[in-house]
């Protein structure tokens, strides 16, 4: 039974007894029993949270939002406000049961945002999606598949390049301030520099109250200073320094201090921040880029590591039962833990409806929504285009040797391997194109992420079924994925073997779906199916999901564990 909120009013002497009963002016046995049934269902935990929307929806479209009153009730709290509401999704707009994009406000003029924390582990936000999940009778695939990919992200090894002077990658940084000097000590692999020329680079950022000259030098213990430049830093300015020196044998026994960069500001360097200290063998300048030590960690700090979260709710629009939905977090800067004021925080989604260049088979993108589009920030700049096009060109046009040698320096290859494996296992449609997002926190190192995974586990975008456990998944059409599979087969197979003991175990896969589906009572499912022409309710069952997951994962053992 789905409980519908009762509305009461004073008895109207000008209306008939029947009219007063219909309008809530008379207490009837049917209404009171309905209330008792609702109380009983709530007390035994059978009721889901409810969302009530009221207002004129006649002009609402995917492009036109309309203000509606918003009420959320979960038995413990009631949240009331206004939502600026429009349809959400692409293909989902074709269905009679719509998705809705909600932007919550405290007032009906939409001037004061209402940020809500629906779950303790969620961030407060005012933007959410009400997902109808029309094609999935179980309402489970999108959120459960996102949760499983979140698990992959958390237990994934990050192979960001680390120090190895011999092949020209980065050094760690230890900063110690002494009066007017800041010493950036090169700690590891010191001896490998001895007797060789070295390239050194770093950044310096001045605070708003600092204007002065910075002299930067290379020092070796028991070896004369080797000065290579003086630069004036303006108020709030930033500069990138680079140069080469000869690192001669010093004879000093303490390797931790054997080689260091000294930065002399002339005054105590409290107004300066030094970062991205790079030391490499050889006199050739390294291609400049921000040090990728922060290239991936902001993703780990995001609410769900870049994946949507949600929970089932029942929705009523203008008093009419609209059935079962999920209230989901939205695809925005908060999802990825990004700062839209930071020009290096970029999130790109695939908008290619033709499923061609969206497979990363191009060197350039317009980023105008015809091929790719921005999630973060709002507006495209030439710099953003240049950075994303550099990523595209490397994926699409680099030689096999260059791809193999440079991929880990530019792309989170382990994230891509997880996408390759999970999209193959779950048979995620659109995973080769429209369900992929590419993000970067430093403008250089790109992390692929999966999004919108409802058309999966045998389900098509129409809610019908398109194959069996041994079918070929679409993910191989994506050029990045196909190149990774060809260049790093050992890593792909090793990750599969590892995941089969953890996230990809039959028990974990099935348990994640069981846990979600058991939140929803059979009566609630039946009520939703009676309201809409939900596809494949007789086939799209938990038993089917369980069967295809177990068969699929065992089938892929023969593919990835050969």
List strands and helices in order, with pairings:
Elements: H1 17-22, H2 29-43, E1 50-54, E2 66-73, E3 78-87, E4 100-105, E5 127-131, H3 141-154, E6 174-178, E7 181-186, E8 196-206, E9 212-220, E10 223-233, E11 238-247, E12 259-264, E13 272-281, H4 297-301, E14 310-317, E15 320-329, H5 333-336, E16 346-350, E17 372-376, H6 382-397, H7 400-410, H8 413-425, E18 436-440, E19 446-450, H9 479-487, H10 489-500, H11 506-517, H12 522-531, H13 542-560
Helix pairs in contact: 3-11, 8-9, 8-10, 11-13
Give a quick summary of the entry.
With 562 residues, this protein is an alpha+beta fold. It has 13 helices and 19 strands. The chain has a 7-stranded mixed beta barrel with strand order 1-2-3-4-5-15-14.
Please give a structural write-up.
The chain folds into three domains: 48-131, no CATH class; 165-294, Galactose-binding domain-like (Jelly Rolls, Sandwich), CATH 2.60.120.260; 333-560, no CATH class. The strands form four sheets. A seven-stranded mixed β-barrel has the order 1-2-3-4-5-15-14. The chain is α+β, with helices and mostly antiparallel strands and 562 residues long. It is 26% helix and 25% strand. It contains 13 helices and 19 strands.
Percent range of helical residues: 25-40%
Number of helices: 13
Shape: globular
Number of domains: 3
- List how many beta strands DSSP finds: 19
Strand order, main sheet: write it out: 1-2-3-4-5-15-14
Rg value: 29 Å
Q: List segments where confidence is low: pLDDT < 50 over at least 5 consecutive residues.
A: 161-193, 218-229, 248-269, 281-293
Question: Could you give the distance between the termini?
Answer: 51 Å
Derived from helix and strand composition plus strand pairing, the structural class reads alpha+beta
State which percent range the strand residues make up.
Answer: 15-25%
Mean pLDDT, all residues: 80
Biggest pleated-sheet summary: 7 strands, mixed, barrel
């Amino acid at each position: 039974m789905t409980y519908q909120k009762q509305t009461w009013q004073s008895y109207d002497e000008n209306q008939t007894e029947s009219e007063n009963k219909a309008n809530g002016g008379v207490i009837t046995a049917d209404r009171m029993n309905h209330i008792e049934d609702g109380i009983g269902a709530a007390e035994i935990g059978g009721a889901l949270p409810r969302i009530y929307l009221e207002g004129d929806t006649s002009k609402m479209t995917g492009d036109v939002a309309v203000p509606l009153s918003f009420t959320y009730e979960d038995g413990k709290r009631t949240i009331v406000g206004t939502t600026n509401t429009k349809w959400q999704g692409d293909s989902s707009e074709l269905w009679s049961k719509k998705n809705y994009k909600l932007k919550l406000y405290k007032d009906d003029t939409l001037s004061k945002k209402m940020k809500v924390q629906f779950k303790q582990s969620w961030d407060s936000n005012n933007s959410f999606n009400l997902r109808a999940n029309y094609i999935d009778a179980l309402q489970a695939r999108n959120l459960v598949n996102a949760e499983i990919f979140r698990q992959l992200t958390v237990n994934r090894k990050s192979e960001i390049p680390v120090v190895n002077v011999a092949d020209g990658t980065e050094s760690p940084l230890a900063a110690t301030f002494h009066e007017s000097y800041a010493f950036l000590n090169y700690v590891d692999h010191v001896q490998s520099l001895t007797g060789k020329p070295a390239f050194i680079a770093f950044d310096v950022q001045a605070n708003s109250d600092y204007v002065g000259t910075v002299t930067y030098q290379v020092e070796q213990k028991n070896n004369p200073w080797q000065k290579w430049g003086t630069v004036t830093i303006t108020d709030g300015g930033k500069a990138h320094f680079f140069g080469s020196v000869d690192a001669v044998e010093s004879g000093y026994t303490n390797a931790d201090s054997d080689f260091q960069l000294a930065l002399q500001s002339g005054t105590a360097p409290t107004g300066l921040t030094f970062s991205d200290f790079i030391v490499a063998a050889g006199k050739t300048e390294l291609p400049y880029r921000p040090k990728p030590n922060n290239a991936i960690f902001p993703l780990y700090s995001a609410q769900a590591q870049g994946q949507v979260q949600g929970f089932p709710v029942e929705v009523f629009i203008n008093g009419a039962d609209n059935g079962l939905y999920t209230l989901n977090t939205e695809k925005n800067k908060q999802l990825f833990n990004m700062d839209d004021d930071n020009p290096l925080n970029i999130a790109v989604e695939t908008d290619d409806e033709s499923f061609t260049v969206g497979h990363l088979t191009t060197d350039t993108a317009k980023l105008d929504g015809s091929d790719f589009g921005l999630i973060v920030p709002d507006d495209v700049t030439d710099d953003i285009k240049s950075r994303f096009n550099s990523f595209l060109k490397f994926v699409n046009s680099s030689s096999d040797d260059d791809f193999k040698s440079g991929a880990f320096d530019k792309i989170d290859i382990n994230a891509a391997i997880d996408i390759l494996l999970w999209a193959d296992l779950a048979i995620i449609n659109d995973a080769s194109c429209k369900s992929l997002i590419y993000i970067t926190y430093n403008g250089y190192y790109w992390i692929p992420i999966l999004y919108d995974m409802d058309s999966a586990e045998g389900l098509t975008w129409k809610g019908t079924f398109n194959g069996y456990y041994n079918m070929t998944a679409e993910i191989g059409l994506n050029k990045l994925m196909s190149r990774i599979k060809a260049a790093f087969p050992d890593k792909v197979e090793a990750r599969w073997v590892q995941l089969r003991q953890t996230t990809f175990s039959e028990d974990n896969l099935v348990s994640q779906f069981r846990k979600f589906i058991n939140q929803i009572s059979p009566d609630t499912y039946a009520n939703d199916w009676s309201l809409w022409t939900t596809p494949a309710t007789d086939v799209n069952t938990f038993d089917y999901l369980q069967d295809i997951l177990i068969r699929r994962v065992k089938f892929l053992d023969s593919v990835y564990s050969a």
